[in-house]
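Appendix B, example 12.
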Amino acid sequence: MTEMTETDLEKLAPRSKRFAARLIDLVLISAACWVLALSELFSAATLSLAWMLAVLGLDTAVPGRSPGKQIFRIAVVSDRDGGVCSRWQALGRNFPLVFLPVLDWAFIFCRDRRRIGDSLCNTLVFRLEHVRENAAVEDQVSPYVNEEMSLQTVAVFGTMLEAEILRARLEADGIPAVVVDGNLVQAYSLIAIAVGGVRVQVMQEYAVRAGELVKLLNDGGLQIEG
């Protein structure tokens, strides 16, 4: 990658958010391993291996976006085009973090904030709003919606299935809708509360109609008589 300009540097995720995101990821992984250890079904060696594999692969379920990164709205991108990284890049960049954690993190204080893993896999960590083709990083976005449009949440669910049912019902009534954080909650169900659940959002101009339809659905006004 060529020398980064000041504009490029403004797109980079703050170091503080990267540290905080990694801390959250490690706490979640360690807590899961601790719960498994209490069951006494796995040996210490097995749990250690599971912990290491989780550290390596946490960014791959939703490419470039571990639970911690999702909370702080940052993402790993390819330095070639600024788009979401591949799963292989997300996996490869974490290897030095497992085996040389202190040395790897030391490189985050360089001008372009690349860890060793970032340099090896041609990745950077951006603020989410600067990631190219946000539709690939966020959940599926309705073709009626673009980045410039103001969205309003009309319902929150614990699962992606419930949210998709409502989205389909809204669009059947001519109300464009989008499901936000569905893939993330589906991949990491334990953090559903931390990210605010699976949200169904509509454009501001449709918010009143959507709210009325959601209320009618909740009241059972649209149930099909058997």
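The two ends are 63 Å apart (CA to CA). The chain has two domains: 6-134, 138-218.
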